[in-house]
Amino acid sequence: MRQAFGVDHTRSSWARLRFAALLALLAASLIGAGSGSEAKGREQKTAGLPSTDELPGFQQTTPLWAWTDFCNRHPSECAADAAEPSVVRLTKATWDTINAVNRHVNATIKPLSDQDHWGMVDRWDLPEDGYGDCEDYQLLKRKLLAEKGLPRRAMRMTVVIDDKREGHAVLMVRTDRGDFILDNKTNFVLGWNQTSYTFVKREGDDGASWVSLGGVIPPFATANR
């Protein structure tokens, strides 16, 4: 009986060891599967989202006079909170919001030059009466996107030279997938390097100063519809 009991006891110990090893392997496989699922989930969240390059700023430069005048009249629209991120994380929901606002403003506001609207060459303002030119479209887009939760600090007003060699204003949204351009001339939100524009300067991260984007002589005004 003692010998038989010893054999049974040994077999029972080996069975427990094999069972423990099996549980360890199962746990390891589940952890691996979980990590793989998380990685796959992250890939699915960014799948189909565009990406482009970052457009770095160079030395500080002066803003247009019309921007300074706008900020004097609407200081809250020009304030930059240093606690906000200067780059927004681009998700599908954020991308859809950016595109929806771009299309909505382009369809809603009617083009009208500053000369016809205000009797002056260049005036930046929110198009509260439903009329405006390029910068007014972009100011409204930024206001609406900020109301939807995008950090204002990641949305920079930008001066460019367009394909007609005229001054023009666009809105640059800086994301972790590159810098994208909202424009009243198109409903497509494009990477900055997918446009035909020469980029001159944009708001700096602190909101007060602007930064050069290539050393091109800036236009006097952005009086372009």
Blueprint (SSEs and pairs):
Blueprint: H1 2-46, E1 60-61, H2 65-73, H3 75-78, H4 92-108, E2 110-111, H5 114-118, E3 131-132, H6 134-147, E4 155-161, E5 167-175, E6 178-183, E7 186-191, E8 198-203, E9 210-212
Parallel strand pairs: 2-3
Antiparallel strand pairs: 1-9, 4-5, 4-8, 5-6, 6-7, 8-9
Helix pairs in contact: 4-6
Indicate the structural class. alpha+beta
Strand order of the largest sheet: 1-9-8-4-5-6-7
Query: What is the mean predicted local confidence, pLDDT?
Result: 84
Give me the CATH fold name of the largest domain: C8orf32 fold
Q: At CATH's second level, what is the architecture of the largest domain?
A: Roll
Number of domains: 2
Model regions low in confidence, pLDDT < 50 over at least 5 residues: 1-7, 37-44
Instruction: Please give the radius of gyration in angstroms.
Output: 28 Å
Q: Would you state the CATH class of the largest domain?
A: Alpha Beta
Q: How many angstroms separate the termini?
A: 102 Å
How many helices? The count is: 6
Name the beta content range.
15-25%
Tally of DSSP β-strands:
9
Q: Can you tell me the overall shape?
A: elongated
Succession of helices and strands: HEHHHEHEHEEEEEE
What kind of sheet is the major sheet?
A: 7 strands, antiparallel
Helix percentage: 40-55%
